[in-house]
Specification:
single chain, alpha+beta, Erythroid Transcription Factor GATA-1, Chain A, two-stranded antiparallel ribbon, binds zinc ion
Length: 74
Amino acid sequence: MKVNCPQCQKQIEWDSNNPHRPFCSKRCQLIDLGEWAAETHAIPVKDPQNDIFIDPENIEEMLSQMPDGFFNED
Ligand SMILES: [Zn+2]
């Protein structure tokens, strides 16, 4: 089964082992997430345990520090 990456439109094979699906890569996933954050006017996401603020300008750097599989919700 082939799908188009929602970000760059590249056609990729759907692979349930791909942690970035439906995106082709982590980069496209992060770009999409960054745009989503920007569209929501960067409303701070507040975690009652740890104050976490998502800054779209630094989202890639921030997310790169998160553990692998952070976005896996299987
Ligand atoms: Zn892509």
